[in-house]
Amino acid sequence: MRLARQLQVERRRTLSGLRSLVPALLMFLACTADLAVAIPSETPELDPPARADQATLEPERADQATIEPELADPSELRAELVAATPEAIAAALAAAEQEVHELGIRAKLRYSPAGPLPSSAGLEPAYAERRAFALAGDLDQVRDWMALAKFGTDAALRGPLADYDLIVTREGEHAWLHVIVPVQGLDPDQHPIGRHEAYVAGERWINLADRLEPGRHYLPYKTNGKESIDRQWGRVDVIEALAEIADDYEQRTGLLLGVGDISHVTGGKILDHWTHREGVDADLYLLDHQHLHAGRPSIWWHHFRKARSIWSSEPLGKGKREPRLDPEDELSDTPTSQRLRVLAQIVFPRDPIAYFVHDDPRVLASFDREVGERRPGRRYLHAQNRGMWPRHCDHVHLRWVDGDLPVGGTPRP
Question: Taking the model in full, what pTM does it have?
Answer without folding.
Answer: 0.79
